[in-house]
Amino acid sequence: MFSFQTVSEHFQINQSEWALAFLAAFLLGISKSGIKGITVLIVTLLVLVFGGKTSTGILMPLLITGDICAVIYYNRHAEWKYLFKLLPWMIIGVIIGAYVGQNISESSFKLGMAIIILSTVIIMFWWEQKKDIRVPDYQWFASIMGLSAGFTTMIGNLAGAFSNLYFLAMRVPKNVFIGTTAWLFFIINLFKLPFHIYQWKTINLLSFSANLYMIPLVLLGMFVGIKIVDKIKDQIYRKMILVMTAIGAIIIVIKEIA
What we know:
This protein is mainly alpha-helical. The chain has one domain (4-257). The chain has helices spanning 4-11, 15-32, 39-50, 52-74, 80-102, 106-129, 139-156, 160-169, 174-199, 205-228, 234-257. Helix 2 packs antiparallel against helix 3 (39-50), helix 3 (39-50) packs antiparallel against helix 4 (52-74) and helix 5 (80-102) packs across helix 7 (139-156). The longest helix has 26 residues, at 174-199. The relative contact order is 0.20.
């Protein structure tokens, strides 16, 4: 493992930026505990610290750590019939995203992630206002959501909005939703690993050394999240996170066009 100083110098990040990275890792643990809607904020924080494509490689081992914890804790609630309906289309979307993302410049990649982030926030804001919305429960809908989720999870680890729409369409109970998505993203994130290591080269010994400093915060976040998942006021919390995420995405855009 490389020293903290070596990792900091390689990625050219200071103490305040490390604080943002540690916050992102902590929030990731909370999100994997079942508190949805903050993945976009996590991605935004890591993009601000590490850059666009690099941040996707930094995030992967953290996601898998959280996935393992979520699978262990929520495994009993998983419903595989829902997972198998969405998973093949997500795999295709990942493959498309891997080859599209390979040829995108860092500036375009980061700007594209910001657009995806803002689009996701808009979708989630719109969803919050439509309490009685009915989402079509058809295979074509699963196909579209799966392809979109696979593509966006490869480009920017931002599949949450699309997978959420799919599982809401299935009208699954809360615990089934959490347990099934835990397995879904564990499988998908493992599938994405070779692309990050061998094709994009965003995961290496230096990036993994950074992960080792951040993983304890993921575990702490998972522990805290499990404790508060049933107590938090969901509507206020979600709106606060959406506002913060939108601000973060706008900052990314401003930095790229300034």
